[in-house]
Amino acid sequence: MASFSSTLAICIAITFLLLNQSKAQLNTTFYSNTCPNVSSIVRTVIQQALQSDPRIGASLIRLHFHDCFVQGCDGSILLDNSGTIQSEKDAAPNTNSTRGFDVVDNIKTAVENSCPDVVSCADILALSAESSVSLAGGPSWNVLLGRRDSTTANQAGANASIPSPFESLNNLTAKFSAVGLNNITDLVALSGAHTFGRAQCRLFSNRLYNFSGTGNPDPTLNTTYLVTLRQICPQNGSGFVVTNLDPTTPNTFDNTYFSNLQTNRGLLQSDQELFSTTGAPTISIVNQFSSNQSAFFQSFVQSMINMGNISPLTGSNGQIRSNCRRVNGS
Ligand code: HEM
Ligand SMILES: *[C@@H]1O[C@H](CO)[C@@H](O)[C@H](O)[C@H]1NC(C)=O
Ligand SMILES: *[C@@H]1O[C@H](CO)[C@@H](O)[C@H](O)[C@H]1NC(C)=O
Ligand SMILES: *[C@@H]1O[C@H](CO)[C@@H](O)[C@H](O)[C@H]1NC(C)=O
Ligand SMILES: *[C@@H]1O[C@H](CO)[C@@H](O)[C@H](O)[C@H]1NC(C)=O
Ligand SMILES: *[C@@H]1O[C@H](CO)[C@@H](O)[C@H](O)[C@H]1NC(C)=O
Ligand SMILES: *[C@@H]1O[C@H](CO)[C@@H](O)[C@H](O)[C@H]1NC(C)=O
Ligand SMILES: *[C@@H]1O[C@H](CO)[C@@H](O)[C@H](O)[C@H]1NC(C)=O
Ligand SMILES: *[C@@H]1O[C@H](CO)[C@@H](O)[C@H](O)[C@H]1NC(C)=O
Ligand SMILES: *[C@@H]1O[C@H](CO)[C@@H](O)[C@H](O)[C@H]1NC(C)=O
Ligand SMILES: *[C@@H]1O[C@H](CO)[C@@H](O)[C@H](O)[C@H]1NC(C)=O
Asked: Membrane spanning segments where (predicted)?
């Protein structure tokens, strides 16, 4: 009897230990002893990069998003092609589109100079996202840290999991739910990141000329804005030309993205659907964020934390890459 209960006690203890390990939580003080200045190092490099490229903050937060949606926030998007890696950079949502990898390298070099082999590339993306938002006038927050880097990439996963601008609101919602972002507020708040940055004509020009084979433009596109966009993206022009996602305040992180949607000036189909899909639960959230910037900022921070928590590698899983582009020792 005594041995049974002590065996039981040991089993329970081991179960708790294992549960604890598999549920290792990120926290804001993870580097407070090993790299106390990491946030300001990241921020300083981004500030410098912004001098010559006002778009770079937008490009960096997008890397964090595209990282987190594919096998979790594990720096997988940063791995280059190699004998064993089929790079996510060549996946459909990323190719000729994601940018900022050179700036991530510069940040990593600066961080390694202060604290070698300590800070993961996945955490650098999370910290870069926060710095980019706050430097553009958006909210600041304490970033949860302690992610480790993957030794694998998943190009097929990137093709399948990252939302496309041509998808229906139902499909977008399903792709967010698939990574655990099953509250519709996450979709609306995070889409608000389209308050800065650019998009290429090829990703919305179907809306300007022949929407869904109708021979007409997208009826949910503002006709004044349509004229402007047709000038930027002529029918036979290069699909690689870019324009501002937020025509009102292109480089500022604010809530004008949501007032743009109310005047049918969402650039991507996936943007405008949040407001123009009949009966959608997203409409009232767009209205709320449009009328109250603090409400948007508060939800955005919470949703960034939710996104940053998608299946991180922690504890002794994964590794701390010394070069974000390569698995250690390869
Ligand atoms: C809701 C689903 C989403 C779709 C369908 C979507 C789609 C797109 C597309 C098509 C572009 C333009 C890319 C190009 O022209 O090369 C873009 C840009 C961008 N996206 Fe999203 N996105 C979504 C959600 C998000 C989220 C969650 C974030 C971040 C929290 C984000 C941040 C950005 C930023 C900042 C840019 C501009 C990047 C730059 O200028 O380099 N997007 N997005
Ligand atoms: C943060 O997480 C690390 C790793 O799980 C842990 O060692 C550390 O004690 C945590 N810090 C706090 C304040 O919880
Ligand atoms: C922290 O980093 C910033 C930016 O690189 C630098 O200006 C500052 O002197 C650093 N502070 C400490 C205490 O190392
Ligand atoms: C698109 O990407 C391919 C492959 O990386 C490259 O060869 C091509 O030059 C890129 N096109 C543009 C317009 O950037
Ligand atoms: C992902 O999509 C790209 C572009 O469509 C394609 O070239 C590539 O083969 C796809 N990769 C996988 C693993 O399915
Ligand atoms: C929505 O998702 C379904 C199921 O995955 C797919 O068959 C359909 O093509 C998607 N629709 C759009 C517009 O992407
Ligand atoms: C979704 O998130 C919002 C904002 O954080 C919260 O008020 C709401 O209760 C959540 N909804 C559900 C169904 O959990
Ligand atoms: C629009 O696209 C549809 C389907 O691809 C095509 O049949 C039609 O001829 C196009 N209309 C115009 C005006 O280009
Ligand atoms: C675009 O190119 C097609 C075929 O090359 C041509 O028939 C059409 O007139 C051109 N449209 C414009 C607006 O230049
Ligand atoms: C179209 O956009 C203009 C601002 O450029 C705005 O004044 C107008 O109300 C919008 N029209 C509609 C139908 O939303
Ligand atoms: C705006 O949102 C904030 C944060 O959620 C809230 O505290 C405040 O009461 C809201 N203001 C108005 C006018 O509704």
From this structure: none
